[in-house]
Amino acid sequence: MQLTATNLAPTMKGFAAGITEERLDEFRLRLESRRTGFSLEAPFYTDPHLFNLDMQAIFGQHWVFACSVAEIPEPGDYVTLDYGPYSIIVLRTDDGGVNIIHNVCRHRGARVLTELKGTTGNLVCGYHSWTYSPEGELIHASAPGEMSFDKSCYSLKRGHGTIISGLVFLCLAEEPPTDFLETGKIFAPYVGPHELEKTKVAYQQNIIEEANWKLVMENNRECYHCDGHPELACSLFPTWGLTDETIPPHLEDVWDRNQQAQAALEFRCRRYGLPYEVVEELDTRIGGIRISRESLDGQGESFSPDGRRLSKKLLGDLPDFRLGRCSMHLQPNSWFHLLSDHVVTFAVFPISANRTLVRTTWLVADDAEEGVDYDVDALTHTWKQTNLQDKNFVELCQQGAESPFYEQGPYMKSEYQVEAFINWYVTRMREHVG
């Protein structure tokens, strides 16, 4: 678990140069006067200048989930990521590591790789054939009659990259937050037994949500709206985030069933030596995290109508299908469900102040055979439907934030993780703008 980078891009202090000092003072005041326990003021969801600050202060300075190793399993495999003003190449190296390279040719700025994913040796810009090594070093840039120049001065710019338990993260900062190493040590014992290095992509879904990225993350951090997810409610207890004191009468039976299922799950985890305890440091560390292993309804195996497994192949060295789900939230852009039979990863990539890409990827054991061990439609049905429902919820919130009659509303007790996300965000922004 190492953090590596060479030829880093320069610091981005001038990135938000279009914002006047007067506007920056306004944003500082909004951050300092933020009303605890309430949603943010409308400009945080609608203002393009504030979006630029988000890209600089959050996505330009902190560790971001990029993909899993199942998406780039072999040396030379790559994915490209476009979010905010950035275009990034995530390239698997010969030694099993990952290179994070800005997808901007050093000649005249063209995109070097134009596909979402693929396999490559050297990186060749399609415009004038400037050719770079997998490490980004310029190795070919010739033209008839052209005098020689120092190629070492024109390498592709690099970011930091690391792989932890099969999950790939990147950071574009000159000096990334070092506490992410400690965050990795927290989640590695939970994620490691699923052995993502031995999985493959069964399906990937990309959805554009017409909403600010923070609204997407807020929606994920609570289950107050889970009555709107009928497919998910078959297996995921809709009491997530609730307590004995906050259970509504219509969910009391579900709460009791959940408590019994959780006790049985924890018994199995202790028997198998698997961690299950809740670790919750969403806004008390820079690399904010929440992770636990939680029971599922029905048979307790997977996200299906009856809770039964959706793939016949166990992941890694897991001994039992009845292990519920390992649920992990990471700030600022990801969440994960790791089950015994498959894994679902979610990545949020902001596009503009009111548009966000949500990428969902389903992973199964690399020796699982489609049509024999799993049916891709059944595997993906619950979260495909849930994602579309969430898209609708989030877009309704964006429409409200753009109304002149929008006013901050209070978070309920069950929405404490939303408050934690917003507190993390506001803290990071305050640190950045001073």
Automatic annotation (TrEMBL):
Question: The Rieske domain covers which part of the protein?
Answer: 64-170
Q: Which domain of life is it from?
A: Bacteria
**What SUPFAM superfamilies does the entry give?**
Bet v1-like, ISP domain
Q: What is this protein called?
A: Aromatic-ring-hydroxylating dioxygenase, alpha subunit
Q: Which InterPro entries match?
A: Rieske_2Fe-2S, Rieske_2Fe-2S_sf, Ring_hydroxy_dOase_asu_C_dom, Rng_hydr_dOase-A
Arranged from A to Z, the UniProt key words for this protein are: 2Fe-2S, Dioxygenase, Iron, Iron-sulfur, Metal-binding, Oxidoreductase
| Gene3D superfamilies to which the protein is assigned, alphabetical | Naphthalene 1,2-dioxygenase Alpha Subunit, Chain A, domain 1, Rieske [2Fe-2S] iron-sulphur domain
Keyword presence, Oxidoreductase: yes
**Species this protein is from:** Brevibacterium linens
A GO term for molecular function: dioxygenase activity
Which cofactors, by name? Fe cation
CDD domains (alphabetical): RHO_alpha_C_GbcA-like, Rieske_RO_Alpha_N
> In the UniProt record, does the keyword Iron occur?
yes
